[in-house]
């Protein structure tokens, strides 16, 4: 199992709900994507990142197919990249 995490901040706070909704509406329905979640950090102390998206895959090949899927492309271009700052993406096994 491959676990992908995206830690990030937003440029505009009013876009958080849109990103959350579209994460579940679009990404959770891409074939191969499993256990999709959107989370907010507990606001204690000096945080580097305030938001987290996680997605699991059976393999890196499944991840590659996910990246090319039209729902992921739509999410990334319309609802994520324009509003996100300080993005860190990491994979875990």
From TrEMBL:
What top-level branch of life does the organism fall under? Bacteria
Q: Name the SMART domains for this protein.
A: Dabb
Pfam families in the record: Dabb
For the Stress-response A/B barrel domain, which residue ranges apply? 2-92
Q: Which InterPro entries match?
A: Dabb (IPR013097), Dimeric_a/b-barrel (IPR011008)
List where the protein spans the membrane.
none
In its UniProt entry, what is this protein called?
Answer: Stress-response A/B barrel domain-containing protein
Q: What organism is recorded for this protein?
A: Sulfoacidibacillus thermotolerans
């Amino acid at each position: 199992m491959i676990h992908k995490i995206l830690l990030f901040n937003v440029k505009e706070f009013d876009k958080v709900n849109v990103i959350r909704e579209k994460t579940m509406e679009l990404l959770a329905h891409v074939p191969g994507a499993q256990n999709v979640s959107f989370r907010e950090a507990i606001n204690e102390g000096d945080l580097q990142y305030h938001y987290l998206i996680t997605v699991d895959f059976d393999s890196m090949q499944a991840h590659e197919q996910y990246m090319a899927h039209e729902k992921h492309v739509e999410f990334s271009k319309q609802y994520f990249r324009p509003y996100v700052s300080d993005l860190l993406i990491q994979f875990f096994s």
